Amino acid sequence: MTDASNPAEPSFSEIDRLIDDLPDADLESATSAASQLVTLMPGGQAGDLGDLAVWLARWQGRTRPDLRRPRVSLFAAGHGFAVDLAADPVSTGQEEVARFTEGDARTNALCQAADADLRVYDLSIEIPSADARRGDALSEEDCARAVTYGMVAVEQGVDLHAFSDASLGSAVAATAIAALLMGARPADHLADGSKELAICDAIVETHRGETKPLEILRKVGGLEIAALVGAGLATRFARQPMLVDGIAAFAAVGILGRLDARSTAHIRPARPPRTPVERLLLANYVEQAPCDFRLGTDQGFPSAAAIPVLGLAAAILDTPAG
Prior knowledge:
Blueprint: H1 12-20, H2 28-39, H3 47-60, E1 70-76, H4 89-101, H5 106-113, E2 117-122, H6 140-152, E3 160-165, H7 170-182, H8 195-206, H9 213-220, H10 223-238, E4 242-244, H11 247-259, E5 267-269, H12 276-283, H13 301-316
Parallel strand pairs: 1-2, 1-3, 3-4, 4-5
Helix pairs in contact: 2-3, 3-13, 5-13, 6-10, 7-8, 7-9, 7-11, 7-12, 10-11
């Protein structure tokens, strides 16, 4: 398990300032050169691999992208409402994290096969956010601190960052974000008659009328979604390509996109959206087509599965023309 350092704690106003200072994506030379290499390949067609290769080149700023240092990172946190989802939500959450830290999850096997680093960040599962059905899930200080935590998880020298979550209740919080942010119907993602849907409906009713992205994140989101927002922001500043999978990561994309559409230009879904809510979260703010391996799970698994394919995409640009 990785423990991030204790960085300075920003306020929402400082996060807004960071958004205002987003660097231009002035990477056209690498994109143009990579695109030309793709068109000069034998046969003249590289299909989806060519598209992936150009995306990597653009966001690495290299004519020939590199994928020797990919990383998959998972954020885990606790939610106050999770007492209605598990008899002991803290132990359940800690056991889930232990699957990854002890190497017992399917994502571990894929990361090992892809020679990718796997990091798991425990955002104090034993101290869950407040129950968003009854009030604000997070204070501004705690929310901003989690955003910063996610930013610290992004390191220079990594060729590709992939982010997801491993939190009990993250789908409920993310669906509530989608409902308040974009008017999504929770029943279009959560099973009819389920505890998750009842909790989500109660959360949305409590916070109905809130429209500011960071306030929505604070009031109904969890620490893991806030950290995912920070990770997306930091990779954008670092001009690193980023994969995401899972509705919690998709909700973070929605928050970032609503703050500034430029902040998600480097992000690619590691799988297609499965529900109308996921499609709504991704539709307006993700330019790149999702990878599609027809996988039915998240928690970094689709991202880890995509890494070898992205490695092949990077390698095709070394194919001699002719």
